[in-house]
């Protein structure tokens, strides 16, 4: 059985009947298709927990619906995979970022995920140039992960947070946005943790 649920205006014909084998690759994941008369040709999709909500124009045929559901599932899966890179992928990404924004000058010996970071987003130990990125960063938007990687890469070149350090990050267009994102996230984490207990205040990558 397919797990998909089609929610549509009562006046349109149901499409629950479309039960094709290729849709069953979704396994236990639920897909909810919303048809909108206001939509002309755009399709959008997002996930809420285990459910993927795909919005399509009301005029789409069952076949178009199926194709678009598959397309959007693949796109969202790819996007999520990029948010959860493996250690090897993290290393590859760091090397790319170093090439692109630091002229390839920051050469890490290793880049890996770590659950030892506690209050930090990442760390870079020198002189080994070993970078560890907190698991808390896993699943965050790609541009935020990239910023955390770049921040630690820049520490290979400049140890402290001096002007020279921030100069290195100037070429990355989302530095300020990512810092704001992480500050907000740290604030939310602190708020969630509030229990009269003294909370640490180190929220920036260091
Ligand atoms: Zn730092």
From TrEMBL:
PANTHER family registered for this protein in UniProt: UNCHARACTERIZED PROTEIN YGJP, UTP PYROPHOSPHATASE
InterPro entries: UTP_pyrophosphatase-like (IPR053136), YgjP-like_metallopeptidase (IPR002725)
Ranges annotated as biased composition (Basic and acidic residues): 19-34
Protein's name in the database: YgjP-like metallopeptidase domain-containing protein
Coiled-coil features, chain-numbered ranges: none
Pfam families found in the cross-reference section: YgjP-like (PF01863)
Ranges for region Disordered: 1-44
Start and end residues of each YgjP-like metallopeptidase domain: 108-179
Segment forming the signal sequence: none
Compositionally biased region (Polar residues): 9-18
Gene3D superfamilies, per the entry: Metalloproteases ('zincins'), catalytic domain
């Amino acid at each position: 059985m397919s797990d998909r649920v089609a929610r549509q205006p009562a006046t349109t014909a149901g499409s629950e009947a479309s039960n094709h084998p290729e849709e069953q690759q979704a396994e236990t994941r639920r897909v909810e298709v919303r048809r909108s008369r206001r939509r002309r040709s755009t399709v959008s999709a997002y996930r809420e927990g285990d459910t993927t909500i795909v919005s399509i124009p009301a005029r789409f045929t069952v076949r178009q619906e199926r194709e678009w559901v598959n397309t959007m599932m693949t796109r969202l899966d790819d996007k999520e995979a990029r948010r959860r890179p493996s250690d090897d992928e993290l290393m590859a990404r760091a090397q790319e970022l170093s090439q692109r924004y630091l002229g390839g000058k920051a050469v890490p010996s290793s880049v890996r995920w770590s659950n030892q970071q506690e209050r930090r987003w990442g760390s870079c130990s020198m002189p080994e140039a070993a970078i560890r990125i907190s698991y808390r960063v896993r699943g965050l938007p790609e541009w935020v992960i990239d910023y955390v990687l770049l921040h630690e890469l820049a520490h290979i070149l400049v140890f402290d947070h001096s002007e020279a350090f921030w100069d290195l990050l100037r070429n990355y267009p989302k530095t300020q946005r990512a810092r704001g994102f992480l500050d907000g996230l740290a604030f939310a984490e602190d708020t969630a943790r509030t229990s009269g207990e003294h909370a640490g205040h180190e929220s920036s990558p260091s």
